[in-house]
Every structure is written in C-alpha cells, then in structure tokens.
Amino acid sequence: MNTPSKQTIIESLGLEAHVEGGYFKRTFQADHRQRIATAEGERFIMTSIFYLLTEEAPIGHWHLNRSDIVHYFHLGSPITYYLIHPDGQLETVVMGADIAAGQKLQLTVRGGTWKASHLEAGVYGLISEAVAPGFEYEDMTLGTRATLLSDFPQHADPIMAFTRD
Where is the DUF985 domain (predicted)? Predict the structure, then answer.
C-alpha cells in the first residue's frame, strides 16, 4: 500500500483548519432523515467528519461536546487522547494501528467529557468521527485554561499542555 502524503490527504479529502486545531471536513449528515429534538434545538440524527492532526498542527485543544462521538483511526502515526470524565477522572487512550501494543482503532467519548488530542510524533494522524446527535458548533465548548484548572486542578499538566491561553 502506498502511504499518502499529508498534503495529498488534505487536498484529496478537502480538509480545512478546525477551531480545535488540526484539519477536518464534514463527510455526512443525516439530512435524509427527520431531525431529532434536543434541549438545544433540532439536530441531525448523526454527522461524521474526517479529522487530521499534523506535525505543524499536532494538538486538538481541550473541548467538550454534548453529543456522543465514536472515533475511528485510519492512517499515520498514533494520536493520544486525554479525557476528563464528568467525575473528574483522567483517562489517556492512544489511537493507532498497533493493537498488539494496546493502541485502539476505535474510541467512544460520551457527551459531557472534556477531550484533547495530541500527535506526539510523526507527520500526521488521520481519524474519522461519527457524532450522535449530530454535531453543531453551539453544542461544543472550547476549554479555557483558567476554567479547566479551576475545575480540575489535579490535571494541571495536560490542561497546561493542551490549552491555548
């Protein structure tokens, strides 16, 4: 198999810069189905994206989504995910192809969980995400260093590493 270059992936998949960091493109929204009602308004039943971290943009900064998200690893180097669950527990998961070393091909993150991601080495890591109910920007909160440190002082190191301010 010929491994595509980072630029080939960005161009072929039509990826654009994402507010969290990295690159993305929405690839699906269930607009052929009736939308569902949520407390925040009507949402697609599901949406899906490609998401790419690169050596120049290696961080997906701390953010919280209301919806559940299933992540699928595709290509490139492993991506480390940091999750702060609603009970304050920190979990670290490495997504990658080396399942014998404990890397995960799939990761489910329930809504209400803080999440950051990091490409620790390599040129890129490519995943996709399925989000249900479907993603809308108003359902995402970008983490600020001050708020996260106030809420989770026991996790200062990863909070400091993966916030912009």
Answer: 7-142
Structural domain harbouring 51: 6-140
Residues whose CB falls within 8 Å of the CB of residue 37, separated by 6 or more in sequence, listed in order: none
Mean of all residue pLDDT scores within the chain: 96
Which residues touch 34 (CB under 8 Å, ≥6 apart)? none
Contacts of 82 (CB under 8 A, 6+ apart): 90, 91, 92, 115, 116, 117, 118, 158, 162
Question: ∠ at Cα 39 (36, 43), nearest 5°?
Answer: 30
Per-residue pLDDT tens over the stretch 71-112: 999 999 999 999 999 999 999 999 999 999 999 999 999 999
Query: Domain tally for the chain?
Result: 1
Find the helix or strand (DSSP H, E) in which 8 lies: helix 6-13
Cα 41 from Cα 38, distance rounded (Å) = 5
User: Which CATH number covers residue 10?
Assistant: 2.60.120.10
The two tokens of residue 122 are 């390599």
pLDDT beyond 80 at 1: no
Domain membership of residue 165 (yes or no) is: no
Q: Single out the residue of 24, 7, 4, 6 nearest to residue 15, CA to CA.
A: 24
